[in-house]
Fold:
Amino acid sequence: MFSLFAPAAPIHQPFGRGARRQMPLMIFAVGLAASASATAAQSGAAQSAAVPSDAVMAATTAAKPPTFDPIAFFAGATEGRGRLKIIFERRHAVAVHGHGRVAADGALILDQIVEGAGDDAPAKRQWTFRAAGPGGYTGTLTDATSPVAGTVVGARLHLHFRVKRGVVADQWLDLAPDGQSAHNRMTFRMIGVVVGRLDETIRRVPS
Structure:
């Protein structure tokens, strides 16, 4: 019967006394070699992970969305098509024809003709727009009763200004990946209540 307290069977030792003295050194050397091999493998893997291939870098660069430069986007001819909804009124189709030019001081002067916003005749308006620090813009608008403040974050431009009767306008323009069009969403609020919305697509017109 097996017993925990039974004497252990003698262990056969195939090595002589000299070989047994060298065993610790051999084990130590093998351990160093294995450790060095593992360290080299880990270092190689880390370098491979840290340094992406050219294909990966190219794909990353191509996938990065463009930064919205409103002065460059609105320079030249643009055309907007959208729908405007004012509270208590039916929805209107809106068309905006624009032509922008860059002044000597770098400011954008954008002239627009707006059709279908509920008026019998097309309305004319003018924007001026200039850079004001990193990611910031300031300007004027014919219809606004306050300066226009703009902020760019990546491919999105946010504009904020006031119009008549105390209405506050917030405008978000999202640049398309090809840089040739932008989705414009505009909200009008009076004492915090939404009184109008505009949803529009603006496209650059080839010259």
Notes: Residues 103 and 109 are 7 Å apart (CA to CA). Confidence is low (pLDDT under 50) at residues 1-36. The longest strand covers residues 193-205.
